[in-house]
Write a structure and sequence with these properties.
This protein has about 110 residues and is α+β, with helices and mostly antiparallel strands. It has one helix at about 5-45, and strands spanning about 50-60, 65, 70-85, 85-95, 100-105.
Length: about 110
């Protein structure tokens, strides 16, 4: 194979590698968005019986959280509800694996 052929072959391989990396990143982003949508839905469902849910939020990255000698990867989030005309706000720690709310703290 001559130098021109090697250059073309290397260019094709490089392009295929870039496409694979971009495809993987796009799939990871879709999975992350799906996970966040599931958690937001779970937060909403957990609070809907306590009042009207005004808003929810969720951090994109997990942090370590220790409880009862166990360490969990958790998302930090929150919810604001309106109960009897008054706003209530809660800070939440949600297990990244099970989506269970591990800690709920009223902040407003």
């Amino acid at each position: 194979m001559n130098k021109k052929g090697v250059s073309i072959f290397a260019g094709i391989l490089g392009s295929l590698g870039a496409v694979a990396i971009i495809g993987k990143k796009t799939q990871d982003q879709r999975n992350s968005e799906k996970t966040h949508a599931q958690i937001i839905s779970k937060i909403h469902d957990s609070f809907v019986n306590q009042g009207r849910v005004e808003g929810t939020w969720l951090e994109r990255n997990t942090v370590d959280f220790s409880q009862k000698n166990n360490t969990y990867k958790v998302y930090q989030g929150g919810v604001t509800i309106r109960r009897n005309g008054e706003l209530e706000q809660y800070s939440l720690l949600i297990d990244a694996t099970s989506f269970a709310i591990l800690q709920k703290t009223k902040t407003l």
